[in-house]
Design a protein that fits this description.
The protein is α/β, with parallel strands linked by helices and 95 residues long. Helices cover 36% and strands 16% of the residues.
């Protein structure tokens, strides 16, 4: 990403199924959440499934919020409620 994530930017991570995109984004989210609020929205996995992966990867932060939803209006409401610094949508095609 050439030196970091630029505020207001959009980054698309793509690749074959099962290659590790969700795992990579969860690890990145956990790292960012050490100092900023991150909302990780999943349209493919339940919050419990993501929590189990986070535990396995030792990703833990009070600033990392996991939300399992596909309805855009509900996601928008959660964004307004949490006001995160960063948002991860996994995956765009399910929203």
């Amino acid at each position: 990403m050439g030196g970091g994530i630029v505020k207001g930017s959009l980054i698309l991570a793509s690749g074959d199924p099962g290659i590790g995109k969700s795992t990579m984004m969860l690890m990145l989210s956990g790292n960012i959440a050490k100092s900023k609020n991150v909302l990780y929205v999943s349209g493919e996995e339940s919050s419990q499934q993501i929590k189990m992966r986070a535990d396995r990867l030792k990703v833990d932060s009070d600033n990392l919020f996991i939300y399992s939803e596909t309805l855009i209006s509900s996601i928008e409401s959660e964004i307004e409620r949490i006001k995160p610094d960063y948002i991860v949508i996994d995956s765009v095609q399910t929203i």
